[in-house]
């Protein structure tokens, strides 16, 4: 039969292509792993003005932290100033209930 050798050649070429693809994928994975390790090592170097990979500097990070602390202090101050008033309004609403009939209720 004449078809047999062509089919086996085709099957062999497919197997060879698969093994080559696996080798290329493994090589690419190894290369990307090395690049990732280098990236990780570079990002963990402590330095006062080192620009990290997100584009921010340590200085801007410190500035943001300071602004956050200021905002929290303002919120706490407003809470302390308005706490008694809010509690009084809540208690007034709960204690002095004025029942009314809903506008959609049919009497």
TrEMBL record:
Domain of life: Eukaryota
Swiss-Prot/TrEMBL keywords: Hydrogen ion transport, Ion transport, Transport
One GO MF term attached to the UniProt entry: proton-transporting ATPase activity, rotational mechanism
Coiled coil ranges: none
GO cellular component: vacuolar proton-transporting V-type ATPase complex
InterPro entries given in the database record: V-ATPase_G
Family stated for the protein in its record: Belongs to the V-ATPase G subunit family.
Protein name per the record: V-type proton ATPase subunit G
Native organism: Bifiguratus adelaidae
């Amino acid at each position: 039969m004449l078809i047999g050798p062509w089919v086996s050649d085709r099957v062999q070429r497919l197997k060879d292509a698969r093994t080559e693809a696996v080798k290329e994928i493994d090589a690419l994975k190894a290369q990307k792993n090395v690049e990732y390790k280098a990236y990780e090592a570079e990002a963990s170097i402590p330095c006062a003005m080192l620009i990290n990979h997100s584009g921010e500097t340590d200085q801007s990070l410190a500035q943001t932290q300071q602004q956050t602390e200021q905002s929290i202090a303002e919120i706490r101050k407003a809470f302390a100033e308005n706490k008694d008033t809010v509690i009084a309004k809540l208690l007034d609403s709960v204690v002095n209930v004025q029942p009314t009939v809903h506008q959609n209720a049919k009497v």
